[in-house]
Amino acid sequence: MQLPNYKQAKQRIKENVKIENYENSAIYQELGSGKTYHLKTYGCQMNEHDSENIEAMLEQLGFTKEENMEAADLVLLNTCSIRENAHNKAFGMLGRLKHLKETKKDLIVGLCGCMAQEEGVVNEILEKHKEVNFVFGTHNLHHLPQILKKHLDTSQQQIEVFSKEGNLIEGLPVKRTSKHKAYVNIIYGCDKFCTYCIVPYTRGKQRSRKKEDILKEIQQLVKDGYQEVTLLGQNVNAYGKDLENNYHMEDLLEDVAKTNIPRVRFMTSHPWDFTDKMIEVIEKYPNIMPFIHLPVQSGSSRILKLMGRRYTKEDYLTLLDKIRNRIPNVSISTDIIVGFPGETEEDFKETLDLVEHCKYDNAYTFIYSARENTPASKLLDETSLKEKEERLYRLNNIVNQYFLESNQKLVDKVVKVLVEGKNENGKTDLYGYTDTNKLVNFDGDDTLIGQIIDVKITNAKTWSLDGKISEC
Ligand code: 5AD
Ligand code: SF4
């Protein structure tokens, strides 16, 4: 048993990260034959992409996918710890699984992802959740076959969580959800330690993949007919800072653009690491999409300082205005936290003012959630939940108005849409996304799925657009 440790998760050591290749050992290959699995994924794109690796590993072991959780032989929860509600959802699901296991004794239950990295969570599992058969963390995804085998051989609960990040694993199998757009990890972990955030503890220190490995993966995606890649990381702009080859995010973006993949996206960008050179590269290559997710978190410089964000409101606005001036029709989205400890009505009004200035195309807004062991969780927080909910409501009213306004600007315009799939229950046949990442619904033939086509926008709503395939 290897348990997580908060102190160790905080440490950042200079030791070089090694690269290891995933080996699919023959001794595990029959482990899942005749059995089914059901995987539930919570949280961000990093988790979604990890789940694409987990599904492929399970299928290599002989498991087949089962959509109905109650019917599966193995249920695995890939969890998120960013806010308390994600955490509660996973524990709620464990409650259901405990119940299911009363009538289905052979059910195997596993838990992985960010919550597995939390000392408090694993202690709770040890004490109260005997229905969980195995736990592994974010640093040892590739040990899934061994951990599962150990459980099957011994019938004992297996817990293997490393708090110190391990090597970078290349060559993990992947079962991609889409045939047209793909996630590609470029950097793991985060060294920013924003005071409210648990990610630096659950995902470990910043580790960039080698550019050769990233480019090889993307070149293969191009050969396989993929139309879009999203370069993933908690803070992609820090790409390369941990390597010694003076090759940074702008260089990688340029090389990725040169693979001629039709669409390149990247997320998430920390404003502090966003360089002028990056803006130049985005401006230069038409296949780098004019869409930037640029979390601001707060419009008050006082709160930004308490959050450890390393920029002031003015710095952020200067960057945003520069991006808007240099990249035509750029779409900018953001993340905002309301109710950070000590946020006053004045601070909050500064956030509203900032939003009025930035006119975001999209925004993800959250109420601050104290995460165990983070510096912010030790700050005095005197604002009531009711007050925080009211702030969120006021903020959402304003941001929603700007989403609609930015969508309305597209009415009667012809835009490029990557057709992603069929609307199973919707009024229109198909849906896809514009280069600025806006959802468009329209009628058309299934054969268009996977193509980038011209669509004329006929109607704007807050969250989506309606369109008509353009004849010209
Ligand atoms: N409480 C609320 N929101 C949080 N986020 C990160 N940590 C917390 C927290 N403790 C939000 C930030 C981040 C997004 C992914 O989640 O806005 O950008
Ligand atoms: Fe969390 Fe800040 Fe790192 Fe983003 S940059 S993952 S908010 S610590």
Write structural notes for this entry.
The protein is of the alpha/beta class. It is 33% helix and 21% strand. It has 13 helices and 21 strands. It has helices at 6-10, 45-60, 84-103, 119-128, 144-154, 199-202, 211-223, 249-258, 276-284, 301-307, 313-326, 345-358, 385-408; strands spanning 19-21, 36-41, 64-65, 74-79, 108-113, 134-136, 158-160, 168-170, 181-185, 187-188, 207-208, 228-232, 263-267, 291-293, 331-338, 362-367, 414-422, 430-434, 439-442, 452-460, 465-469. The strands form 6 sheets. The chain has a 6-stranded parallel β-sheet, with helices on both faces. Helix 2 (45-60) links the parallel strand 2 (36-41) and strand 3. Bound molecules: 5'-deoxyadenosine (5AD) and iron/sulfur cluster. 5'-deoxyadenosine (5AD) binds at residues 82-83, 196-197, 295, 297, 335, 337, 366, 368-369, 371.
